[in-house]
Design goal:
GO biological process, one term: regulation of DNA-templated transcription
Order of helices and strands: EHEEEEEHHEHEHEEEHH
CATH class: Alpha Beta
Distance between the termini: 52 Å
Organism: Streptomyces xiamenensis
Strand order of the largest sheet: 5-2-1-6-7-11-10
Number of helices: 7
Pfam family, one: DJ-1_PfpI
Helix content: 25-40%
Number of domains: 1
Strand content: 15-25%
Largest sheet: 7 strands, mixed
Number of strands: 11
Protein name: ThiJ/PfpI domain-containing protein
Length: about 200
């Protein structure tokens, strides 16, 4: 029996690089250095092909969306590529189906806009990139928009603010899934201790 639990990071054209790669660094460091925890992380795209990100980086996917292993956690990044997803009926329907199958949905930056468009944030607290807070409220006025939050944990759904906030959200995810001690080890391992120069 396969007891491995899985985190899938969605990739799509014009995804914001750090939205996906920041959490990947945190989660891959954790799962590769502490395999006994029983988790793995992988990336996937709609057809399994590589994607060109928002700033020109091309990233390969490990799986295609329809043939990847079952997920325990879905991470939906943001970026300019989320804009067409807001009206992509197929993608929104796929997300609604994941809500029924995946225990924990997470997002970075404008990934939460896509969740909102799919109706997944109705009546719930959430956040997004500071530049898209109004858009989040417009997409679903029932959302309790947390404007100052770095991330919002609402049980089976976690949203985070923009870009680098995905690193903080991913560390919080490690706390939830493996405990504070493990998250501290990961944070030290990736030497994440921000001291901005300005």
């Amino acid at each position: 029996m396969d007891e491995m639990r899985r985190i899938g990071i969605a990739l799509f054209p014009r995804v914001e690089e750090l939205d996906a790669i920041g959490p990947w660094e945190v989660l891959a460091y954790w799962t590769r250095n502490f395999p006994g925890d029983g988790w793995e992380v992988f990336t996937f795209s709609a057809d399994g092909a590589p994607v060109e990100c928002a700033k020109g980086l091309t990233v390969a996917a490990h799986h295609a969306r329809d043939t990847m292993p079952a997920l325990d956690v879905l991470l939906h990044p943001g970026g300019q590529g989320t804009r067409p997803q807001l009206t992509d009926a197929e993608h929104l329907a796929w997300l609604r189906a994941q809500r029924d199958r995946v225990p924990l949905l997470t997002s970075v930056c404008t990934g939460s806009l896509v969740y909102a468009a799919a109706g997944l944030l109705r009546g719930r607290p959430a956040t997004t990139h500071w530049g898209s807070l109004e858009r989040l409220a417009e997409l679903d006025p029932t959302i309790e928009v947390r404007r100052e939050a770095r991330f919002v944990d609402d049980g089976d759904l976690i949203t985070s603010a923009g870009v680098s906030a995905g690193i903080d959200m991913a560390l919080h995810l490690v706390v939830r899934l493996a405990g504070e001690e493990r998250a501290r080890a990961v944070r030290r391992g990736i030497q994440y201790d921000p001291e901005p120069p300005v």
